[in-house]
Amino acid sequence: MFYEVLIIVYLIVAIMLIGFVLIQQGKGADMGASFGGGGSNTVFGSAGSGNFLTRTTAILATLFFVISLILGNQTADKEKDADNWQNIEVPVVAQPDTDVPAATVPAEPVLQPAEESDVPN
């Protein structure tokens, strides 16, 4: 149960981390804001979104790596079931079906005496 919940949280953190990395502006984008790019009327205030996005990305990245280590630790001790493709050298022994009724075959073949017209000259 804990493993499944951790996998779901792991996927959500990974998707959020990808989203926050894609939202961030590059280092060259600050140059446009200094020449009147309208940086003062942003959602995050005049300081911009740099601190918020950077801090959130760092927290999500830390969560991602911690959950990765926990998942790796949980799956390291488990043994896998034997795979059928790993034993391809061993031939498979066919088991006879016991549900099929035996065919009616006479125990000994019945020989008919040959007639004179069947014998070649």
Alpha-carbon distance between the termini?
89 Å
Specify the number of helices: 3
What letter string, H or E per element, gives the SSE order?
Answer: HHH
Q: Helix fraction?
A: 40-55%
Q: How many extended strands?
A: 0
Structural class call reads mainly alpha
**Quick check: average pLDDT?**
76
- Mass-distribution shape: rod-shaped
- Unreliable parts: none
- Computed over alpha carbons, the radius of gyration is 38 Å
Main sheet overview = none
- Proportion of β residues? under 5%
Describe what this molecule looks like in 3D.
This protein has a domain at 13-23 and 44-77. Helix content is 45%, strand content 0%. With 121 residues, it is an all-alpha fold. Helix 1 (2-23) packs antiparallel against helix 3. The protein contains 3 helices and no strands.
In short:
The chain contains three helices and no strands. The chain is an all-alpha fold and 121 residues long.
Keywords:
mainly alpha; 3 helices
Q: What is the secondary structure topology, with strand pairs?
A:
Elements: H1 2-23, H2 29-34, H3 50-76
Helix pairs in contact: 1-3
